[in-house]
Design brief:
Helices cover about 90% and strands about 0% of the residues. It is mainly alpha-helical and about 60 residues long.
Length: about 60
């Protein structure tokens, strides 16, 4: 019985660890995508502004 108890404790410890790892991974992924989206907006917004003056200058 004692031999079976440690595996149960290890399994109990693994579940929260896996859950934490999953949450951390999802959080990092979500944060990365959010940062990428914000960075994309920051980069995309100036481009049209920079292109319009170029077109005006060209004309």
């Amino acid at each position: 019985m004692r031999v079976q108890t440690p595996p149960k404790q290890i399994a109990a410890k693994r579940s929260p660890t896996a859950l934490i790892a999953k949450i951390a991974f999802v959080s990092l992924t979500f944060t990365y995508l959010l940062a990428y989206a914000l960075a994309g907006q920051m980069i995309v917004e100036p481009e049209p502004d920079a292109v319009n003056p170029s077109d005006s200058s060209g004309l």
